[in-house]
Amino acid sequence: MNEVTLQRIEELTEKVNQLLLARETVPTPTTVSEPEDQFITTRAPASELKLYPKLKDALPSIEEDFFRIQLTEEERKDAIYSCPKSIFMNYLPPLLNDSASAAVKKADSTLHGIQVALAQATRPLDYYVHRTIQDNPEITADDPRFLFADTMRVLLSDIAATVTQGRLDNLHRGMELPGKPQQLVEYEHQQEGPGSVNPFRGRQQFGTQNSTISYTAPAQTTEAAIP
Predict the structure, then answer these.
(1) What letter does residue 200 receive in the DSSP assignment?
(2) 3-state SS string for 41-72
(3) At what angle do helices 144-174 and 102-120 cross, to 10 degrees?
(4) Does residue 226 have a pLDDT over 50?
(5) CB 3.0–4.6 Å: which of 49, 71, 193, 201 could bond 76 by disulfide?
(6) Using N-to-C axis directions, what is the helix angle for 122-135 and 102-120, rounded to 10°?
(7) Alpha carbons 189 and 168: distance in angstroms, whole number
(8) In angstroms, rounded to a whole number, what is the distance separating the alpha carbons of residues 210 and 115?
(9) Would you state the pLDDT for residue 144?
(10) Quick one: pLDDT at residue 48?
(11) 5: helix, coil or strand?
(12) How far apart are CA 196 and CA 216, in angstroms?
């Protein structure tokens, strides 16, 4: 092998080494891994569930307008009252105390009705978990069915709590109280004092659970507590 050929080989080797070095220093572009489920489309920052025949058959209402689905009175009663009440659950939210004006009470009645419906909607969930336990004695607490039911129950409770805050905001505006309405997380742990006013009337609770919601305000109103 002559000297010219050896020199050419050395030059080519050097160029290859340079290309390899440059390739190693260039950052590798990150790619979003596709989910294994063929019906899931990944879009930043969330994933979307596609509708497919079996899902449609399993959830017939999934194609309907969620905000326009309205059951008949008979359908509603059948869905709710076919499941027993839970003795540990209070299904009746508190009513406004008598110091609230008629206008405030009228506006509050709709929100109160929504809370009642949300509380009643937990009955099928509770009964479903009960039947699952009875039908599967060896089932464990980390079963996905329990996680799903508990998640749905917490979501319903969160909506009910949001409505509670809305009722208090409505009361605050209706009574023209100074300052900002107290937040739910503040007053549900607040101890009642001489200036503490409860916006709700007392109500008999199911079971032995008690709850007290206090509302501090300078207005002179009748003090009440929820037993």
Answers:
(1) B
(2) EEECCEEEECCCHHHHHHCHHHHCCHHHCCCC
(3) 180
(4) no
(5) 71
(6) 20
(7) 15
(8) 18
(9) 95
(10) 87
(11) helix
(12) 4
**Among all chains, which residue has been given the structure tokens 């969160």?**
158
Backbone dihedral angles phi then psi of residue 195, each to the nearest 5 degrees:
-100, 15
Distance separating alpha carbons of residues 111 and 21, to the nearest angstrom: 68
Q: Side chain identity at 213, as an amino acid letter? A: I
4-13, 81-90, 115-124, 162-171: the lowest-pLDDT one: 4-13
Measured CA angle at 113 (ends 119, 59), to 5 deg: 55
Q: What residues contact 100, with CB distance under 8 A and at least 6 apart?
A: 108, 171, 174, 175, 199
165 close to 187: Cβ distance less than 8 angstroms: no
Please count the other Cβ atoms lying within 10 Å of the Cβ belonging to residue 172: 19
Q: Which residues contact 180 (CB under 8 A, 6 or more apart)?
A: 172
Find tokens 């979003």 and name the residue.
32
Place of tokens 């008949």: 72
User: Whole-angstrom Cα distance, residue 116 to residue 111?
Assistant: 9
CA distance 167 to 159: 12
| Residue at 198: amino acid letter | N
pLDDT tens-digit series, residues 15-47: 666 666 665 555 555 555 655 788 887 777 778
